[in-house]
Amino acid sequence: MQDNEKKPTFSGSAKLPGFQNEPSKKAFWAGLAMIAVVAIAAVAWVAWGLKSQEQEFEANMHKRLELMAASQVQVIDALFENAIGQANRVINSELYKLYATEVHLIQDDISLLVSGSLPGQGEVSDEIAQLSVQLPMMQSLLIEFTRISDYRDARVVNQNGTVFISTDAATTPMRNDQMEMVKQVLQSQKPQFGPLHPSEQGLILEAFLPIFPPEASGLEHTPVAVLLLTRITGERLKAIGSNRLMEKGEETRLLQKTADGYQEVVAWLPEQLRDIRQPLDLDQKDHLPFAIRTAFNNDRRVYSLGRRAEGPRWWVVVESDYEIARESLRSQQRAMMSIATLLVVVFGVAFGAFWALLVSSQERKSARYFEALAQEIEKQRQLLDRINNTISDYIVLKDLQGHCLYVNPAFATAVGREPEEMIGLDSEAVFGYDAARRLEHSDQQILAGKETVTLNELVYLQSQPHHLQISKSALKDANGKITGIVSVIRDVTEIVEVQKRQEQATAKTLEALVRAIELTDPYLAGHSRLMGRLGVEVAKAMNASDIDVATVETAANLSQIGKLFVDRELLFKAESLTAEEKANMEQHVEHAAKVLKGIDFGLPVYEAVCQMNEALDGNGYPKGLQGDEITLPARVLAVVNSFCAMAEPRAYRAARSVDEITTILESGDGAYDQRIVAALKEVVNSALGEKLLAR
Question: Do 265 and 238 meet the contact criterion of CB atoms below 8 Å apart?
Fold first, then answer.
């Protein structure tokens, strides 16, 4: 079978051709992306559907409970309206209105209506006598009314709470809650219903209705008495708890508010009333809003809603068991999730079939590609071998235990062994014990996470000293884990030897310049050397950096070089210098700057020499620098130079003592850095200082 596909070709470079299966990879990832999109869309659809179903379910549940509660509230409202309608025959009767008004207007004790005049007391008033005559008739009419209207008993109470008409021969005193209801009726001028009370015959409902005076009486239209009616109403309330529209898990409850809290009306149970544990979370309309809450008589979760009845503080609460009510919703939700899962599975199976066909068509391409890739890898390996075999730098690969895994021929030749012999050797076997211990520290730095470590080390190879510049880095696998240490080593022995010879030549040159300075001014003999020794010790005492210490030492030796160009007569003059002569003498700094400018010492020697005659207070020369504008080496040289000058004899004075000099420096009026003066005092008073000054 002829293959018309063009085979990949490779060059000798390190760049490899693209993977021939890339179209398959793209298709694979595109397919996975599509499956992910479908899955995400399915999840989003399910989430939206579940949320919509949840909202619709709760909206329908709200409507259902609202309708059931409203229907029961209508039953209760009808019950109260019937009670008020029956009572209107009494409170609207002109006979009762007139009798209650006459009782209201008399000033005597109303109890005399029933008891009459007691022995030992005077006769009752005519008004009381007339009303007493009418009382039996009023009682008979009220008894007849209660019998016809199915009330248990009735009472008429005046504004002071005294019962003056009663259907019960043994009238019990008014309870406190009844007295409170009488006051509410007199204030509101509207009928009121008290809380239900249990009794042996059943629950008792109490109705309180205002009796107004006749319109023809001319009195203010306010109640003059209150009609109290009581009725056994338990049987009527049992119908509220039963409703043919209720489904499984649904219940209707009747709650009432009392002075002690809330009670559930359970007329069919022996206790008739049952206290409930939690308060009602009522809204602004005094209704119990629709919500998921705990049932009133157990710990079940329920959907519940309550509506208040007109009249007494009664609420009809409808509950629907949460778990039972949501059974149908859960079925719908499971069906929706099953559809979404099935959709994702079908799409995934379809993509899997497509992918299997695509992979089979790419297998031959993969085989050809990896064959060509193996050839290219071999070329690259040969190229690396040629580079490693010809490079002059040493290359070493060690494992984590420090044993050689690979060395290039250049390093093996330097050690005097064959590359194969060095595999498995550690640093001690190659460099010796002491050098191996020093190199081990850099290995630990790499293993601790440092990317690259560079160091210079003196080692002996084949009994000859070699200065090596070593760069180490970690070899990591694809997961970033360190598997070895790669060292690239360059032998810089020749460069180091050249630098040493240059340093020796520079030192001899400086020494020659110092001798020339001392020959110019015999008083400067040993001055520069003493400055250098003292300056180094003072800088060390101040914990100065190595660069600053080296700068102080070199600059001290060159500090007097500018005096080579000053008139010798000025150098040897015993008398005080004139202002002009002093200005000429100060030119030695500019002469030194001209000599030293452009010379690369590798240190800030030029700045130190040019600034050593400056003063912290700005009164020095040549530029009048002050404070931190003067470098630390220059400030050290300024103090040490003054010390050495005063410690040595001059043509016009003898040498001063150490204590005298330090006293002068300490009282230098801000010219000297007192930290350096203190360090100098510490040095010269030490054993080392005495040794330096004795030379």
Answer: no
Pull the structure tokens for residue 526: 């040993």
Burial bucket for residue 475 (CB in 10 Å: 0-12, 13-18, 19+): middle
| Residue range 506-515, pLDDT digits in tens | 667 666 776 7
Query: Which stretches of 38-100 are assigned E, i.e. beta strand?
Result: none
* Strands ordered across the beta sheet of 288-294: 272-275, 261-266, 250-258, 314-321, 301-308, 288-294
The pair of three-digit structure tokens given for residue 331, joined into one six-digit string: 């079925």
**DSSP letter, residue 654:** P
Residue 153 burial by Cβ neighbours in a 10 Å radius (0-12, 13-18, 19+)? middle
Distances (CA, A) of 114 to 120, 123, 347: 17, 14, 96
Average pLDDT score over the chain:
82
Between the CA of residue 508 and those of 319, 502, 511, what are the distances in Å?
Answer: 109, 10, 5
Confidence of residue 9 (pLDDT cuts 50, 70, 90): very low
Is the pLDDT assigned to residue 404 strictly greater than 50?
yes
- C-alpha distances (whole Å) from 280 to each of 58, 191, 238, 296 are 21, 25, 22, 10
pLDDT at 681: 92
Between CA 184 and CA 310 the distance in angstroms is 16
Rg of the Cα trace of the chain? 59
Give residue-wise pLDDT tens across range 664-683.
Answer: 888 877 889 999 999 999 99
* Stated pTM of the model: 0.45
CA distance 463 to 276: 102
> Apex CA 680: angle with CA 674 and CA 683, to 5°?
150
Q: Helix or strand or coil: residue 658?
A: helix
pLDDT value at residue 53: 84
Considering only CA atoms, which of 633, 634, 632, 639 is closest in space to residue 623?
634
Length of the chain: 695
